Amino acid sequence: MSGETKVEPVLTAEKEMNGKKKKKPPTTAAESNGTNDTDGIIKSVENAKIDDDDDDDDNVAGAEGEPDAAGKKKKKRNRKKKVKAQTDPPSIPVIDLFPDGNFPTGEIVEHPTPKDMLNDQTAKNRMTSAEKKARDAMSDMEYREIRLAAEVHRQTRQYMQRYIKPGMDMIHICETLENTARTLIKENKLEAGLAFPTGCSLNHVAAHYTPNAGDPTVFNAQDVCKIDFGTHINGRIIDCAFTWTFDNKYDKLLEAVREATYAGIKTAGIDVRLCDIGEAVQEVMESYEVEIDGKTYPVKCIRNLNGHSIAPYRIHAGKTVPIVKGGEHTRMEEGEVFAIETFGSTGRGMVHNDLEVSHYMKDFDVGHVPLRLNSSKQLLRVIDENFGTLAFCRRWLDRLGQSRYLAALKDLCDKGIVEAYPPLCDIKGCYTAQYEHTIILRPTCKEIVSKGLDY
């Protein structure tokens, strides 16, 4: 989800596994490097099943110790096992596909040397430092949980990329995506599930649009759609987004934003200043132009949207990552998790609040606030039990059986307990695009944990 600066606080907008199991479980992004200790991730790891390729090898003629017709012993055939392959559409929880708890690792790269510290050798020594490796090992459980959430995101989004067709209702697209992710992550209230509503903002709407009940909006063949959704395990959030279109006239716009995101990820690392990331993003993004229907547009960074740090159950953990030069000289730190996201536009390159609100989130720091209305108290209990401080939308309240809650929701917003996040829009008639990945600044390396074969 997206971050925004100097306007109003806003949210930050596998390959399929087929074939037989080899020595290691198949991965989507890179080889898994976890250990076999799965305690504490999710109890159902222990109950995941593996199908045997041949359960009766020990009982068939020719097994070791049984003579053949010539009286010679044959060697026992190795019992081959295979990992369950994901179905299409996906229906097997990811945790059951990796019963040893070694979920796919993201793309691993060295930390860069910060732009203003070119003589510092610290970054180059991190991968081989025994001290850094020891600190890395201490966070193994955290990494496993976030990798599980990342694999759910990969499998869900890659299925949706095959599934979405022109003319589909946006509600249908969002509910299909969300139900798929809920199945793959084994949704369990605050322990595992969706981290925020599915953003499916179209054209000049850059972020924070998801349809409310009764919204008739359709994804047409000429639209540009930003699909931004999150998954989490025990509050460890994957925030990852891509842009989807059916017309190749937008290719350069998408390429500009995708490559700008990669530039931001490449620049990011321990001790790197946030302003240096914004400069790298802008340099790449604004080197592009796109021709649409005979008219050429420069691609502009949407300068009041940004990336952000992430903490457990907190999508915005305090640091913002600009996508234009200037900004804070605050540095990234070891152990932090960041969403590196960029937005490009053929319009003004500035967004404002517009349209009907669908996104809401309880204030992370809010204390006890007295409530007079019983309806407000009841709705707050539902929010606390199902979302906590994670973002939610009106469709999700409908799904939980809530009705006639708008007055109570407004009361919670008026009292500062819950905040509303309206859609963020550039000028009508323009087109916007978004790409985003979640990265972990591990002591030894930088892990692009949500990276996949699609982007």
TrEMBL record:
Catalytic EC class: hydrolase
Q: What are the names of the required cofactors?
A: Co(2+); Zn(2+); Mn(2+); Fe(2+)
| Pfam families to which the protein is assigned, alphabetical | Peptidase_M24
Instruction: Tell me yes or no: is Cytoplasm among this UniProt entry's keywords.
Output: yes
| Record flagged with keyword Chloroplast | no
Ranges for the Peptidase M24 domain? 145-342
Molecular function in Gene Ontology: initiator methionyl aminopeptidase activity; metal ion binding; metalloaminopeptidase activity
Recorded catalytic reaction(s): these are:
Release of N-terminal amino acids, preferentially methionine, from peptides and arylamides
Give the residues the record marks as binding a divalent metal cation 2: D239, H308, E341, E436
Which cellular component, as a GO term, is one annotated location? cytoplasm
TM segment ranges: none
Q: Which cellular compartments is it found in? A: Cytoplasm
- Record region (Disordered): 1-119
Composition bias type Basic and acidic residues, residue spans: 108-118
Source organism's superkingdom?
Answer: Eukaryota
Query: What start and end residues bound the annotated signal peptide?
Result: none
PANTHER family in UniProt = METHIONINE AMINOPEPTIDASE 2
What's the protein called, per UniProt?
Methionine aminopeptidase 2
Q: Which organism is it from?
A: Galendromus occidentalis
> Per UniProt, what is the name of the gene that codes for the protein in this document?
LOC100905897
